Amino acid sequence: MKWISYIFLIIMVVLAVFTFNGTYSVESMKNVSIWLTVLYFIFGGIPTIYGYRLENENA
Questions:
Q1: Residues 14, 6: contact at Cβ < 8 Å?
Q2: Alpha carbon distance 24, 39 (integer Å)
Q3: Residue 58 DSSP class
Q4: Which of 3, 48, 52, 55 is deepest in the core (most CB within 10 A)?
Q5: Dihedral, CA of residue 4, residue 10, residue 12 and residue 15, to nearest 10
Q6: Any residues with CB less than 8 A from the CB of 44 and at least 6 apart, and which?
Q7: SS3 state at 1
Q8: 7 vs 2, 10, 14, 43, 46, CA distance in Å?
Q9: What secondary structure does DSSP assign to 8-54, as a single string?
Q10: CB–CB of 24/32 below 8 Å?
Q11: Any stretches that span the bilayer, and where are they (predicted)?
């Protein structure tokens, strides 16, 4: 599941670039960071937890 981490890393870099360029306001960045956190736990955290469980059960 490492590719998910790379995807979120790229997204964060892109958002950081937009922030430095002043494209997004502080308020919208707060909302984006909240949604990114939610998406990370949904698509990144849960599969990672199950992934670790599967690896531990197989080992």
A1: no
A2: 19
A3: H
A4: 48
A5: -140
A6: 1, 4, 5, 8
A7: coil
A8: 9, 5, 11, 11, 16
A9: HHHHHHHHHHHHHHT-S-HHHHHHHHHHHHHHIIIIIIHHHHHHHHH
A10: yes
A11: 7-26, 32-52
How large is the C-alpha radius of gyration of the chain? 15
From first CA to last CA, the distance across the chain in angstroms is: 17
Distance of alpha carbon 14 from alpha carbon 42, whole angstroms: 21
- Tokens in use for 50? 């199950």
Q: Provide the token pair at 31.
A: 């909302």
SS3 59: coil
The dihedral sign for the CA sequence 42, 53, 10, 24: positive
